[in-house]
Amino acid sequence: MKAQIAHINLARSYRGGERQAELLIRGLARSGLRQVLIARSNGPLAQRLADADVEIREVEGLLAAARATRGADLVHSHEGRGVYAAWLRSVLSGTPYVITRRVNNPLGRGFLTHAAYRRAAFVASVAKDISDIVQQYDKGIQARVVHSGTSGLTVDPGISKSIRDEFPGKWLVGNVAALDNQQKGQEYIIEVARQLQHSHPDIQFLLVGGGDDEAMLRELATGLPNLAFAGFVNNVGDYLAAFDLFILPSNKEGIGAILLDAMEQGLPVVASRVGGLPEIVRDGDNGLLIDAASTDQLQGAILQLHGDAGLCRTMGDRGRQFARGFTAEVMCGKYLALYKEALNGKNEA
User: In what order do the strands lie in the sheet containing 227-231?
Assistant: First the structure.
């Protein structure tokens, strides 16, 4: 494909959506596709892709982002603000665009939001749950499901061992997520740690990630000997490989792609029954599902797996097998097919 694709991501931080955008851009670069990344000046995504075969245009604001798409054959918006820059480029020059939607929040009812989503060649949702919300919003939108991909995280066995050595004799329960309590629900992990600190002192909780709620969560966990914070790390794979169990007790979630990375490492998982998570976690097969905001269910699931090494191995093996169908290569292939269809004018938007 000879077309030039302009990706827009104006996020100030680097979270799951930015990781997926990076995986896609790197994967498409290996196929020889010409790409431009339009990102916030000095933002983390632009910095991380500095070594990739992609032209980077750093901007401030939506109008600058729209101008930076000039010359592209197709625009791909990876987050909410970029949608309007892509829409404006399409209004000005007829350039088709694709939107990736990663959250299961209701879409805004304003005229501009409706117009921007309706005009898109395709809206690719990372989970069927999200795609259903898009279709309920407007059945005229060309909706597709393109699941997120595994990150293909590398593991240094020596570093993973050193992480485990920090907690000798412990069964390590880990969470990797932005410290955004309203979404990710780390307060429930802290509460379970508080409940288990005396009855199950061999269970150690480790929260990996940074975010706006870090100070609040650290204060909430004050005095707990069985819970630690690792902060933001780049070597996520080393931490996953050190865990015995991965938990994601989110209040809301799009797809929770970190679950796929955990499964790729052979970990059993416990996750909330929200958003697209049930599309990844098959309750009783490759993990356990719990109700959101239920510390009782979270504690029960952890203790069930803590007491059954055979079940942990079985779920870990099934999760590893499941994750093989969600590689970054699979995701890239689906987006390439969408791009070709959009450029061929096969949509009805």
Answer: 227-231, 203-208, 171-176, 245-248, 269-272, 287-290
